[in-house]
Design brief:
Radius of gyration: 25 Å
Oligomer: single chain
Strand content: 5-15%
Distance between the termini: 35 Å
Low-confidence stretches: 375-386
Largest sheet: 4 strands, mixed
Order of helices and strands: EEHHEEHHHHHHEHEEHHEHHEEHH
Number of domains: 2
Strand order of the largest sheet: 1-2-3-4
Helix content: 55-70%
Mean pLDDT: 86
Length: 386
């Protein structure tokens, strides 16, 4: 799965990020196309022109992938799913969404939106390749023909029923519509996806052993599908276990809070060292939670020099997503990017005062307890609350 990325743009209100791996892939494909593909297609092309054509081809391809992801994102957003970011990374692109489709029809429309854009792009380049006059420079013809070919190949690959590829999501939507239950549909689609992934790994390995280096790329895609399908299946199990479970049921309580006006030195000597907790809620003068102070956060954000005199309120993580009510649904909490980043959140009462902390560890304990009783559908809150 994609790792951390850095943002390069905001389009239609959606941030666009680029993974460091994307830069590596751009360089690799530019070299492959410039070194072997375009010298074969465009006779007599100079090395500099060939590599420039390779770079242009790769950048155009990723623009097509970006358009594909925006197809997903815009349709998903129209159906109430918040889009956190679109990332370009090692294997193309991914839309980071907060939440899942609520109806199989929504899932189907979302899954087909991206391939529809890719089909349109491939068709446009294909039509252009056919309509270009004979006097067109060979460099331009080669560029257009390559885009038609590669977008067509991506379309075919994406429509394989290998969850979580788009074809796999279509399969899940159809299974969901037939059974009326999302979790079994997800697990079945994930099993099919893993099967496709293992086949791709085997074929890629055979191609590589037969002397085709690009077989490694096919094997890598297969490995991604196997891993991602497993994560999706696990996510469905977590959703079934924790949907309807409230933060108050899993939180660690009581909780010790640190006044925001406390200096970093005071916080260390009076709270972190004596209590040996990794994190504390930070409260204002009225006792309301304003943020979370963790050892990791303070170690990375405390300024050098006179750091001990810095007020804790200025150093705490004040992301509002890290403050939740006692009635917060834990399954929804796990979808919050801030919670995934920090691994814990402050639980507050109706007045905003901290009453507990909920962490990934608390959630993992609950999941282990849930699995002890089996993972039958519908257990969720009852199995964990009891």
């Amino acid at each position: 799965m994609p790792g951390r990325s850095f943002r390069i743009a905001r389009i239609a209100g959606i941030p666009v990020g680029v993974s460091p791996w994307w830069i590596v892939i751009v360089a690799l494909f530019t070299w492959v196309l410039g070194d072997s593909y375009f010298p074969e297609v465009v006779k007599g092309i100079s090395p500099a022109a060939s590599y420039a054509l390779g770079l242009a081809s790769v950048l155009l391809l990723f623009l097509s992938i970006l358009a594909h992801e925006f197809g997903h994102a815009i349709v998903a957003r129209r159906h109430g799913i918040e889009i956190e970011e679109i990332d370009l990374w090692l294997l193309g692109g991914v839309s980071r969404m907060r939440g899942e489709a609520h109806e199989p029809g929504d899932e189907l429309r979302y899954a087909l939106a991206g391939p529809a854009i890719t089909a349109l792009v491939a068709a446009c380049f294909g039509a252009a390749a056919l309509l270009l006059p004979a006097s067109t420079p060979p460099v331009l013809s080669a560029l257009v023909e390559y885009q038609a070919y590669v977008n067509g190949a991506i379309l075919v690959l994406n429509l394989l029923p290998a969850f979580p590829l788009d074809g796999g999501r279509v399969l899940r939507a159809l299974l969901w519509r037939r059974s009326g239950q999302m979790r079994p549909a997800t697990e079945t689609a994930a099993s099919v996806g893993r099967g496709f992934g293992y086949v791709m790994i085997a074929l890629g390995a055979l191609e590589f052993l037969a002397g085709a280096p690009l077989g490694l790329w096919l094997a890598l895609i297969g490995f991604f599908i196997v891993m991602a399908a497993g994560q999706q299946a696990m996510g469905a199990q977590v959703e079934a276990a924790l949907s309807g479970v409230h933060a108050r049921e899993l939180m660690s309580a009581p909780v010790v809070s640190i006044p925001a006006r406390s200096s970093l030195a005071q916080a260390a000597s009076e709270y972190f060292v004596p209590y040996r907790y990794a994190a504390f809620p930070v409260v204002d003068e009225s006792g309301r939670a304003i943020g979370l102070a963790s050892v990791d956060r303070l170690a990375s954000h405390a300024p050098r020099g006179r750091a001990g005199e810095q007020a804790l309120g200025d150093l705490a993580d004040r992301d509002p997503q890290l403050i939740v009510t006692t009635e917060e649904d834990v399954a929804r909490l796990l979808e919050r990017p801030a919670f995934a980043r920090v691994g814990r959140a402050v639980v507050v009462d109706d007045a905003g005062r901290p009453v507990g902390l909920i962490s990934i560890t608390d959630v993992q304990r609950a999941l282990r307890a849930y699995r002890l009783g089996g993972d039958g559908a519908g257990r969720g809150a009852g199995a964990l609350a009891g």
